[in-house]
Amino acid sequence: MTNKIFLPLIAAATFVSSTYTVVEARKPQLAVSQAQTVDSQVSQWKLFTAPDGRFTVLMPGMPKRVTQTQKTFMGEINLEVFLGQPPKQEVAYVVAFNDFPHSYGQMTNPQEILNNAQEMALKTTQSNLIAARDIRSSNGHPGKEIEYINSGGKITRNRMYFAEGRLYQVMVITTKRQQKYLAKSITGYLNSFNVVLQK
Known about the structure:
- This protein is 33% helix and 40% strand.
- By secondary structure, it is α+β, with helices and mostly antiparallel strands.
- The protein has one domain (3-195): 3-Layer(aba) Sandwich (Protein Transport Mog1p, Chain A), CATH 3.40.1000.10.
- Strands 3-4-5-9-8-7-6 form a seven-stranded antiparallel beta sheet, with helices on both faces. Strands 1-2-10 form a three-stranded antiparallel beta sheet.
- A hairpin with a 6-residue loop joins strand 4 and strand 5.
- Helix 1 packs across helix 4.
- The longest helix has 19 residues, at 7-25.
């Protein structure tokens, strides 16, 4: 398996890292009790459906969308990134996905794709793995949840799923300090992600 396949993952990590710099620059202006109040305001969260209808997820408002194209030995692969960033919080909610050519998706073991995606996520963000476990989507697609921390202290929880030739990454990037106050929102966000099967 060549790393060229996972160029889109590098782009996703680069995009999220560069975008998250903005989050770092905005220091939270809320006291601890106020941060907890913000976390409990579920009315800010809305169900977001992907433009192609292939996934749904709760997002804190309308996410920003960025599309990138990467050239690989398989041809061009498009990367779609959706970023939600609540005001006054050091956190980013991200869904990124890329489609593989049909023949590749049919021939390759999904677990191999997920393992390589994990390796690439750790390498490109220069992070240390905290925890990893195998999971499945609500409709049975194979997945993997990993948690890792980079040298700057940013913690990422990343749930990856491989479904119908597409690799999804559902991520929350935050600080240790914010993580404990946003625990319910983080878990709720990750649990809300659903792959919608094609008809």
